[in-house]
Design brief:
Length: 150
């Protein structure tokens, strides 16, 4: 039985290339904290990314933030969903694809997986050395934007 890879659902308010239709404002940007897991003291970087950028775009931002050379495979995960480096995605075996929801990282907008500050996204890079990062919305920025609107 062949594995069925499910295409990530797109937001109907966005165009076919993932960009919002006409209206674009400061809320289309997300302030994120990218934190290396299991380090004392905590090692983290802050970044601002567009909500309609893909996870593959976020991967490129992360490699620049940490000074990595983008020479390794990567994947993002959140709950039972996995968002893979396109090269890693192509090598997916059928059993693994059937048992999880697997998407190509370049098909998934950042804003669709980072919707709330309390729901982090995990990122693994250099799968041999196992660099793991936790990515979440900067709730201070969310608080500031709500305070400015009110």
């Amino acid at each position: 039985m062949a594995a069925k890879i499910i295409k990530f659902p797109t937001d109907p308010r966005r165009g076919t290339n993932g960009t919002p239709h006409d209206e674009e404002d400061a809320r289309s940007y997300l302030n994120v904290i990218v934190e290396l897991v299991d380090t004392e003291p905590s090692l983290f970087r802050n970044a601002s990314v567009r909500a309609d950028d893909s996870l593959a775009d976020l991967h490129r931002v992360i490699t620049e933030l940490f000074g990595w050379n983008d020479a390794h495979n990567y994947f993002f995960s959140q709950g039972c969903c996995r968002y893979e480096d396109p090269a890693l995605y192509l090598s997916q075996d059928q059993l693994s694809a059937r048992s999880r929801k697997i998407y190509r990282a370049d098909d998934v907008p950042v804003g669709s997986v980072l919707e709330r500050a309390d729901t982090p996204l995990f990122y693994a890079y250099n799968l041999v050395n196992s660099w793991e990062l936790k990515i979440h919305l900067d709730d201070r920025a969310l608080f500031d934007s709500v305070a400015q609107e009110g």
